[in-house]
Amino acid sequence: MNIAIIPARGGSKRIPRKNIKLFHGKPMIAYSIEAAIQSGCFDKVLVSTDDHEIAEVAKQFGAEVPFIRPTDISDDFATTKDVMGHAVSWCVHKGLPVENICCLYATAPFVTSDDLARGLQKLLDTGAEYVFSATSFPFPIQRAIQLSASGEVSMFESQYELSRSQDLQEAFHDAGQFYWGTQEAFLEKKAFFAPHSQVVLLPRKRVQDIDTPEDWEFAEALYTLVSKS
């Protein structure tokens, strides 16, 4: 059995009610639920939330909300692994024969059913413990700079000051959309960014972290462009 678990707590501070705020006319969480259902990968699509309004919206779009998340893993300090560990343990306790689980973020309007299917296939083909979405940095991270309190510039890695961009190793980062994993990996809270993981590479035009109002505005503009291409 394959299960999607969508963490969606109600206490977002920087963007209030972010998980159900309308994004291009639809609650943000709906994009993740619909992609999961359309992928055909899942026997169940569950939402883990502490919020009854989020639970009702999730149900309207086809997800199940079989429990309300405990308060001790619903604050600002709760980690994704804490939330996933609780949800997977709940499934095991209920006797669900869970093999593969996908942690699918509620704020991922660019996620596609095809990418979710690619992630599952890679998990099965490679024997990895996790497969997650990633994309490339648009600029060489070796040439990153930092600013002091007074605004003075220095490089993180000054040995690369004169290096050509094309001579530097390409770097990648988590795209913040989904993490496929085995039941054991989630229950044991194994690290995502480790040799036992693989990635599904996404184009940068379909990746945007949404944590601030500025992020939200940029994501809406980007979504308009991507949907027309």
Describe the structure in your own words.
The chain has 229 residues and is α/β, with parallel strands linked by helices. It has a single domain, classed as Alpha-Beta Complex (Spore Coat Polysaccharide Biosynthesis Protein SpsA, Chain A). It has six helices and ten strands; from the N terminus they run βββαβααβαββββαβα. The chain has helices at residues 28-39, 52-60, 80-93, 113-126, 183-187, 213-228, and strands at residues 2-7, 22-23, 26-27, 44-48, 100-104, 130-136, 145-147, 153-155, 172-182, 197-201. It has a six-stranded mixed sheet with strand order 4-1-5-9-6-10, with helices on both faces. Helix 1 (28-39) crosses helix 4. The model has no long low-confidence stretch (mean pLDDT 96).
* Order of H and E elements: EEEHEHHEHEEEEHEH
Whole-number count of domains: 1
The CATH homologous superfamily name equals: Spore Coat Polysaccharide Biosynthesis Protein SpsA, Chain A
What best-fitting shape do the alpha-carbon axes yield? globular
Tell me the CATH topology. Answer: Spore Coat Polysaccharide Biosynthesis Protein SpsA, Chain A
Q: Mind summarizing the main beta sheet?
A: 6 strands, mixed
**What percent of residues are in strands?**
15-25%
Structural class: alpha/beta
Oligomer: single chain
What would you report as the Rg, rounded to the nearest angstrom? Answer: 19 Å
Q: Which strand order does the major sheet show?
A: 4-1-5-9-6-10
CATH architecture: Alpha-Beta Complex
